[in-house]
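WARN no homologs supplied; continuing
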Amino acid sequence: MLHRGMFGAIRMAIEQVTVDTVFFRRLFVLVFIELQTRIVRVAGVTAHPTDAWAVKGEFPESPVST
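OK structure emitted
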């Protein structure tokens, strides 16, 4: 998902990805990617995502200071 900043410029992408560990456990990771600087910020990691956790990715509070 892409979020637009002021004047419609796309500033960051938000992804929810899964990571399989060496102990065969699946983790769900919410990351923000700043497109101009290519900085990746991990916003959350959980083994048991809830509806509230998933909505965090849809309506985030921006981790990027403006």
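Residues 1-25 form one domain.
OK
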